[in-house]
Amino acid sequence: MKRLSSLSPATRKAALTSLVYLCVSLVWIWGSDRVADRWLDTVGLGWNVQTVKGFLFVIATAVFLFLLSRNLADQAAGAQPAGSAADNAFGLEGRSGLIRRLGDLLADGREGTLMVLDVDGMRLANDSLGHDAGDALMQSVAAALISCTRTQGTAFRLDGDEFALLLPGVPTQEGYELALQMQRWLGSVGRAAGRRSRVSFCAGLVPVVPGMEPQDVLLIGQLLLRRAQQGGQGRILPPPDDDELAALQAVARWGKRLTAALRGGCLFLEYQPVVDLQCGRTAYAEALLRLRDEDGDMHPAGVFLSAAEEFRLMPEVDRWCLEQIIAVLRGHPELNLFMNLSGQSLRDPDQRRWIARRVQRAQDVADRLTLEITETAWAGDAEALRAWMNEMRALGCRFALDDLGHGFSSLAALANLPVNVVKIDGSFVVGLARNPANRSVVEAINRLARDLGLQVVAEWVEDEDTRCQLCEIGVELGQGFHLGRPKPLSALLSTLNPAVQ
Q1: Which residues contact 414 (CB under 8 A, 6 or more apart)?
Q2: How far apart are CA 369 and CA 325, in angstroms?
Q3: Long-range contact set of residues 322-328: C-beta below 8 Å, sequence gap at least 24
Q4: Which of 159, 269, 295, 481 is packed most tightly, with the most Cβ within 10 A?
Q5: Which run of H or of E encompasses 303?
Q6: How many CA atoms lie within 13 A of 489 on its CB side?
Q7: To the nearest 10°, the Cα dihedral for 378, 381, 386, 389?
Q8: What's the predicted TM-score (pTM) here?
Q9: CB neighbour list of residue 88: distance below 8 Å, 6 or more residues apart
């Protein structure tokens, strides 16, 4: 046993605290016959004083040992680096270790390959075979990864079923061939609960090139992994070429910018009027997301939303937008606002529940909020989405189907989803006066929507001729630069028609 003086100060303090408790307890037990007599009178077991003292001594000693072990365990856990327990369970370093190794490799001006992979079907394995068997299988996978890369690189465990392999000096094409070999090797790994368990993984590979940031390399690898997973189990994406890598780096940069903007207050909204085409009155306004970067430059949503979708940030973005819009509606009862909802939010049951709860707490403004969805958003569980939309409509919200006519499933969405407004895709509206085919499409959509009792908004109204054509067709509302550009809230309020106010 270690001498007390050789222990760390924190451990020494924990041991001494527990020892003091034991000493005080013993003094109290052996020096207080009155307490023992009173305990005997109360319990009435027929014990003598010495038996009671012995019994209390055993209890005090057990409590001492419990306190000592807990304090020492707490001190050990507090001294352990964050995340190290999960990493050490598989004998692998974690995310911080990978970032450090990537930084060292890039600082030395060396190249290599990073492979990010995720083991397929572990949730099913845990459910069908049990978590102990699943853990044993993951241990086998980790051991196989270490064995596969022992001479070429280092394996890391990032999170859950996600691993990374850093291969210094290995060209990306060789890394891809190694991944294919590993797929075959891992196919025979693991015996769980006495039965053979076939293992496969999805993976993305990214070149490690001097000039890149370590965090960007990992972000790109995880992005490529998600793309591989969209192709089904066991898919390994071929490495990107130079142009694809440059595009991925741009996506990674925007992903980091957007993450920072969500935390640092660099997002804001502008508002584009939706105008009555006959009288010019602003009937609604669409809230449009903007990002202000570190240089103070403003960027429209089209620049960074693809990165938000790639990194699955859209639900957080939608929550931020909804909070802002509710606040604006409460402060300005003359406004009726449209808000775009992403497909990621609409396909996420937890996100749908959050939105419903938030709108329920804002029912005083819900009837002035219209949520815009696209036809692609309902690809999935259409019944669940329709039930949620009906729930939201019961709270007072309205729905608009955006980009109607853009895809072949638009009419199916129109027939199956409980919407109040349809927005005609702008590609049919631009140059309406010069394109008879587009006019026929707009007329048909307008006639169908009116038969269904829906309001119609024409997008991309860019000139007066188009506005006049839409009025002739009978389209009620329009939106576009000719009718009003996106602007700050104060500018929108200053242009509202007095009839609206």
Answers
A1: 401, 404, 422, 448, 449, 452
A2: 8
A3: 322/355, 322/358, 322/359, 323/358, 324/269, 324/287, 325/269, 325/287, 325/369, 326/358, 326/362, 326/365, 326/369, 328/269, 328/287, 328/489
A4: 269
A5: helix 301-310
A6: 16
A7: -70
A8: 0.72
A9: none
Pairing of strands 477-478, 455-458: parallel
- For 123, half-sphere exposure in the C-beta direction (CA atoms, 13 angstrom radius) is 2
pLDDT in tens, 137-194: 677 777 777 777 677 889 998 987 889 999 999 999 999 999 998 888 776 654 443 4
Using CA atoms, how far apart are residues 255 and 312, in angstroms rounded to an integer? 10
pLDDT in tens, 286-328: 999 999 988 889 999 999 998 999 888 999 999 999 999 999 9
pLDDT of residue 326: 98
* Token digits of residue 386: 């329709």
CA distances from 470 to 9, 216, 273, 453 (A): 81, 48, 17, 18
Determine the Cα–Cα distance for residues 241 and 172; give it in Å rounded to an integer: 10
- Contact 389/420 with Cβ under 8 angstroms? no
Query: Is the predicted pLDDT of residue 222 greater than 70, yes or no?
Result: yes
Give the dihedral of Cα atoms 128, 133, 134, 136; nearest 10 deg.
-160
Within 10 angstroms of residue 428's Cβ, the number of other Cβ atoms is 22
Q: What is the average pLDDT score of the chain?
A: 82
Angle at 50 between CA 44 and CA 55, to 5 degrees: 75
54-77 average pLDDT score: 60
Specify the pLDDT at position 415: 74
Q: Is residue 185 within 8 Å of residue 176, measured between CB atoms?
A: no
Residue 16 has pLDDT above 70, yes or no: no
Task: Give dist(CA 326, CA 346) in Å, integer.
Answer: 19
What is the C-alpha to C-alpha distance for residues 457 and 399, in angstroms, rounded to an integer? Answer: 13
**377 in Cβ contact with 343 (< 8 Å):** yes
**What pLDDT, on the 0 to 100 scale, is given for residue 2?**
41
Locate tokens 């109607």: which residue? 404
Q: Tell me the two tokens of residue 328.
A: 């604006």
Give the mean pLDDT of 33-52: 58
Strands of the 162-168 sheet, one edge to the other: 154-159, 162-168, 112-119, 201-208
